[in-house]
Amino acid sequence: MGRKILFITTDQQRYDTLGVNGGTLARTPVLDALAREGVRYERCQPTSVVCMPSRASMLTGQFPSTHGAWMNGVPLAIDAPSVAENLHDAGYATALIGKAHFEPFMDPFGRFAENSLASLGVPTIEQPWFDGRRGVHRGFDYLEFATHGVMGPLHYAKWMMANHPESLGGFYQVVDGELNVNAEGGGDSGAPQVKYNDVAREWYHTDWVADRTIRWLDDQREDRDWFCWMSFPDPHHPWDPPRSEIGRVPWRDVGLPANYPERASEREAIIDQKARHWRAWYDGTLVSNYEAPAKWVPATLTPDQVREVNALNAVEVELIDEAIGRVLSRLDEKGWGDDVDVIFTTDHGEFQGDFGFLFKGPYHVDALMRLPLIWRPARSTKTAPGVVTAPVSLVSLAATFLSVAGKPAPAWVEGDVLPQNDDEARTRGQDATVTEWDSSLFGVDVHVRSVLTKEYLYTEYDKGTLHEGTEGELYDLRDDPLQRVNLFDDSTRVNIRASLHERLRSHADRPGERATPGIVMAPV
Amino acid sequence: MASLRHEIRIAATADAVWSIVTRPESIPEWFPGIVSCTVDGTVRVVKTAIGLEMPEEILTNDPLLRRFAYRITSPVYKFHLGTIDVIALGERESLCVYSTTAEPDTLALIVAGGTVAALAQIKQLAEAG
């Protein structure tokens, strides 16, 4: 037997929401302990700041410009490479429980397997694989899906409809009557996507995902290795945790984030230094992407709304931490505690009030790009605990899973194995990461590339609806960790700009085959 | 209101392609995710793989123009117009164009996403003869 892998993801969780990363709102003792026992990463970046491209990168080990799922709504090709296929080939039992989102949710025709599987009542289906064979869907022989609400065809929604129909109305209606992200306000402050949810805690999707994971683990043979991706839909909006839990973090006691200047004039002066689509969104004159409510204007966000969103987000983070604790306890009870690698991360971040915004979009700053990442190698490996300060990327996860399984990374994997300390990162030359954004929705297209080093965050905007192809942002992270002062046009930074531009050019010119970019099939 | 268009070149005569598109009852054969339908005069009701029933009104089925047009009449749509045009490009080649105009915009995107796979299936059927 080798090492088993528990891969835990959340959705839209900021780096600073964990206690071990300096967070002060949510209590996260389970993840904090996991980090102290393993390797904690201080600069983990996504390949994209929205779900589908980022999750596809976790599965394929490729950047969006390679795997072809370049924006939300573009399905990952059914025969795209999948690390789960390689692990399946290596003899691992493979499961994904919770939120997948490699295929669009909005699918009235039920064309995508993720949306039809619950109706079919089977644990997986056969599909074409990358290498021409056919096998279980994307390499997973067990799939059970959930997302942010209780509408639609996924397993969790069907379970709620069948077992607790009286609680369906407690959840926030994620989309409005026109199927746009809902702008309706709730809670005490009227913040968008907030609702006090009367659902019982044990029926909420966080506990459901943990329960179903435990059930799957209980079914596994003692003598077989497994790869289990446990994927929580929270703390992504809507912020509608069970009402019984919201007293954990009273929102009126919550301070404002460091990057939320309370005076509008100060916020606006900061935003005006950035590329022009920032201010356009803030003022409500342009919504470039589907992921934020089309009818919500960020300039209307109030300090109390920021407080309440952050409080409810923290409640959701605490529930996740406790759910993870239950799963880890079960692993110990089963005697697997020493043989399991646990990797925890998320797909991208969330503004949560930074600069006066909520949600996400083509805005490459820490709020959306600095992610929690923890790797607790199996105890049997006796890996020294540590902290990695070098930039790393979610694109490295696939290679890392394969290294845990003792398998070489195939040629299609673009990311290196995660380093376990800074010396290893230095030796391997892992000193920068790239994040991509491409979107084209209802006549608005935006194309962004960013590179992060230990010292700088550098962004270039390609020609698009609002950009000439000459704009950019440059932040010196040593002097300006909150990324408020844009140095892109600073004449004293010409050389560093050239050097970072060269890194982006190298990324664009990297060798390897690219999939044909997929077609937008739905908004999300 | 959003309007989207997808097209595909097909190595078959326009008549061969049109013979597929013109039969309203054939839609489950070529629109992935539509599992069955009923046709009663100009009213077609399609059923999707997740059990959703969508009523439609057939507006045009013109063999001279080789144009099939319909609208989804579900109340969730403020407006919908779907048009399939088959255009001869040569003796053995044709172009099939599937246009979707709808309000809300989001629904146009979702239906148009489905038409991409529908065109691929029409091509496969036509080229198989």
Model description:
The complex is a heterodimer of chains A (524) and B (129). Chain A is 27% helix and 18% strand. Chain A is built from 14 helices and 17 strands. Chain B has 129 residues and is an alpha+beta fold. Chain B has a single domain (2-24, 56-128), classed as 2-Layer Sandwich (Alpha-D-Glucose-1,6-Bisphosphate, Chain A, domain 4). Chain B has helices spanning 14-21, 27-30, 105-128, and strands at 2-10, 34-40, 43-48, 53-62, 67-72, 79-88, 94-103. Chain B has a 7-stranded antiparallel β-sheet. The termini of chain B are far apart. The model of chain B has no long low-confidence stretch (mean pLDDT 96). At the A-B interface, α5 of A face α3 of B.
Describe this structure in a few short sentences.
The complex is a heterodimer of chains A (524) and B (129). Chain A has 14 helices and 17 strands.
